[in-house]
Amino acid sequence: MTHEAPGVPTSPNDDDLQDEARPAAGREEAAEAGTGEAGTGAQERPEARLAQAVRVAEQALIEFEIAVETFRVEVENFSRLHHQRLGPMYARLDELDAQIAEARAAKTGDPEDVRKAEEARSVVMPMPGVDELFHDWMDSEGLSPEASAMLTDQKVRPPKRVRPTDEARKLYRDLVRKAHPDLAQDEAERARRDEFIARVNAAYGRGDEAQLNELADEWAAGPAAPRQELSEADELYARLDWLTQRKELLTEWAQELEESAIGAMLRMAPDDPDQLLEEIAEQLLGEVSQREADLAALVQ
Hints:
The protein is mostly helical. The protein is 74% helix and 1% strand. It has helices spanning 15-21, 25-33, 36-41, 46-108, 111-124, 130-134, 145-151, 166-179, 187-206, 209-221, 232-259, 261-268, 273-299; strands at residues 138-139, 142-143. It has a two-stranded antiparallel sheet with strand order 1-2. Helix 4 crosses helix 5 (111-124). 13% of the residues are buried.
């Protein structure tokens, strides 16, 4: 897959882009030499050339995104087929490896062989994690109160009641008086106050005095300053910068796909991946047969 998308600038500060966006000195001289308003009107604005560069870059990025997404779907579909067709064979090989290691350990009694047998078996039947065994019963601090109560036949204790401090109550009342949504002058301000009061209520419900202090400072600072309006040229350069970053990110994704195990397999047989699966399946069947013969020799 081609990483480069024609027409996408690699940087909004490239010399070529600057040359394209900036009118040539010769053109300025020609415009000055023109007669009356006709000569001035014939001169193209720099922003117009920059806007054209943005349109070209946008179209190129769209084509590049289509190519990357198409390849991602191909990799995903081939990965699914790979798992369906070859997954059972890989699982059979893992099981045979474990049985061979266990048979060898039983015959020799060597501690190293025993260790290898346990390791091979763990691949086939991995030990479940704590979260899988206990689900929501255990957290970073140990068994939850509910789990502990169930295991010891005790009644589940209700959660501790939060009692906000006097300072927390004072902060809460002050914030509600200042930021109540009914004091809003328009819908945008009401939405801002609604969101802020929701955070105030949550902090007060936890009795979090420190958070209430932070919210008080936030309200005192006032709303964020409105975004400064950019000039047409600045907006176009900002758009080019975003397009450049997006293209670089897509390039990284494409490279990761191509360098993955499934992507590498697709590159080996881009025209007939199904045939590649058949060839790998035949190879795995041969390995299964060999493992079964090795196991039979050990258990005789």
